[in-house]
Design goal:
By secondary structure, the chain is mainly alpha-helical. It has 5 helices and 2 strands; from the N terminus they run αβαβααα. The longest helix is centred in the last third of the chain and has 28 residues, at about 75-100.
């Protein structure tokens, strides 16, 4: 199974490298359209290779998606945490009640009762 994973990662790496080598041309990224930049008097622009723009967009989309999914699942994690706390509380209460029930009994019988 490990070798299949390495093979898949190798194929993906080769594909990314070939796409990157094929798209090395520079593109100009502008913050604002030309007309709006003239109106405001400021426009940030940068020249980057096309593959950086494409792969950066994919990476930014993945990060944004992971963050949105993490925020969306918050209520499920909170509910699971509450259930786990409740289970621990009930377990402690059962142990306390078993000890209270076995206070006047023989030690061996009390241990057998606690084990069940």
């Amino acid at each position: 199974m490990r070798y299949i994973r390495y093979a898949c990662l190798g194929v993906i790496a080769i594909a990314l490298i070939s796409v990157s080598l094929a798209n090395r041309g520079l593109v100009e990224l502008k913050l604002l359209p030309a007309a709006l930049a003239e109106l405001i008097g400021y426009n940030f622009q940068i020249e980057l290779p096309l593959f950086v723009v494409v792969l950066g967009g994919i990476a930014a989309g993945l990060v944004i998606g992971f963050i949105i999914e993490w925020l969306r699942e918050h209520k499920h994690r909170r509910e699971a945490d509450q259930k786990a706390r409740e289970a621990r509380k009930l377990s402690r209460e059962v142990s306390r009640l078993k000890k209270q029930k076995n206070e006047g009994k023989d030690e061996v019988l009390a241990l057998l009762d606690e084990a069940s």
